[in-house]
Amino acid sequence: MSENATLVLLRHGESDWNAKNLFTGWVDVDLTEKGRAEALAGGQQLREAGLLPDVVHTSLLRRAITTAHLALDAVDRHWIPVRRSWRLNERHYGALQGKDKKQTLAEFGEEQFMLWRRSFDVPPPPIDDGSEFSQAGLPQYADLGDEMPRTECLKDVIARLLPYWNSDVAADLTPGRTVLVAAHGNSLRAIVKHLDGISDDDIAGLNIPTGMPLVYELDADLRPTGDGGRYLDPAAAAAAAAAVANQGR
Ligand SMILES: O=C(O)[C@H](O)COP(=O)(O)O
């Protein structure tokens, strides 16, 4: 048995609002048919690579939960334990939730658009609790109290995600086991930044494609071995990540 643990990071398949090019954040939209197919394809990639998850962690958002279910169904691992946490949710996009990315770029210009979308520590304006795209009062977040975000930057995501990573995910990352984390573009950027030691400036250039497994072998200290994370289909992942980078243009 390997002395390493295997981590599989999987961003949800294309969502309804990904397809419409809308800022999504914590708005609980579903997958498109293309997104469902991406999730199944991600599971088939795991099967072909012989990667059989022993436990799965997801956010509380249906696009990640459904992606995990479809991918695990494709690899006959639908029966494994599942753990869910808001700490794996997508970055809360504040008052940008529901707004068109192209219109936002046109209205606020390149610098402000990129600051809100990809800077490390500049959050969008907070969302009003009365907004139709606010999550205030939803039962799944009832326990958050004052921790309930109204907007987040990537630094905020890292601060609320790492406690879960260091406790719940780390506890499952034992030698010889495979852990699937089905989450979101920015919560996975937070994990990759942590694992790869990417600087606060360089992280702006990292984009995660939908539905494509990113695999790490982690040592006993949960540090990546070898060359770090690897996509099972690197060429397709690079092309899809470039498309994510160009959203709004
Ligand atoms: O929440 C969203 O809008 C997307 O899932 C991530 O969007 P981004 O790639 O623009 O951060």
Automatic annotation (TrEMBL):
**Which reactions appear under catalytic activity for this entry?**
(2R)-2-phosphoglycerate = (2R)-3-phosphoglycerate
Record organism: Nocardioides marinquilinus
Q: What is this protein called?
A: 2,3-bisphosphoglycerate-dependent phosphoglycerate mutase
Q: Which family does it belong to?
A: Belongs to the phosphoglycerate mutase family. BPG-dependent PGAM subfamily.
The yes or no answer to whether the keyword Isomerase is present is yes
What keyword terms does UniProt attach to this protein?
A: Gluconeogenesis, Glycolysis, Isomerase
The EC designation for this entry is 5.4.2.11
HAMAP family hit by this protein: PGAM_GpmA
Q: Which PANTHER family match?
A: PHOSPHOGLYCERATE MUTASE
Sequence positions that bind substrate = 11-18, 24-25, 63, 90-93, 101, 117-118, 185-186
Question: Which pathway, per its entry?
Answer: Carbohydrate degradation; glycolysis; pyruvate from D-glyceraldehyde 3-phosphate: step 3/5
Site (Transition state stabilizer): residue numbering on this chain: H184
Which gene holds the coding sequence for this protein?
gpmA
Judged by the first EC level, this protein's enzyme class is isomerase
The record lists the membrane-crossing segments as none
